[in-house]
Write a structure and sequence with these properties.
This protein is of the alpha+beta class and 142 residues long. The chain has a single domain, classed as Trna Endonuclease, Chain: A, domain 1. Helices cover 38% and strands 28% of the residues. A 5-stranded mixed β-sheet has the order 1-2-3-4-5, sandwiched between helices. A hairpin with a 2-residue loop joins strand 1 and strand 2. Helix 2 crosses helix 3. The longest helix is centred in the first third of the chain and has 21 residues. The chain is globular and about 45 Å long. It starts with a helix and ends with a strand. The N terminus is likely disordered.
Amino acid sequence: MSDQLAKRSSWGHGEPSTALDRVTHGVIGAAIEVHRVLGPGLLESIYEDALCVELKLAGLSFERQLPVKVHYKGLPIGEARIDLLVCGNLIVELKTVEKFAPVHTAQVLSYLKIMNLRLGLLVNFNVAQLRQGLKRVIRSPT
C-alpha cells in the first residue's frame, strides 16, 4: 500500500481515514499471524522481530525503535522511542502484559501528540486470542 495513500486526510472530524484504517487492518493481520505461529508467553522483542518480518511480507513500510525528540515549551528535554511507525503515520506499541493498564493508552496518546499523528495501535501478545490484545487509540485534533 502506498505511504502517500495512507497519509491523506487522516485528520478528519471523526474516525481516521479509510486509507489509514487499511494500514491498521494490515498491521492487525500481521500481528494475528505472528500470534498464531508463536502463541503467547515470549519476550516483547521476539514478537517485534516476527512482526517486522510479517510487515515486510505484507509490503508495509515501517520504522522500528524510532527515536523521537520530546520538547517542553519549545525546548528539547529528552527522547522517546516508538516500537513501530508504520507507513509514516500509524504508531504501533507492543506489549506482553497480563492486561492493558491505563498508562499503556496514555503512552500511545503521548506519542501521537509528540508526533502530531492521529492513530495508534496497542498490541498485547500475552493473551489467548489476539483480538483480546488489540486496542485502537485515536487522538482528537486539538
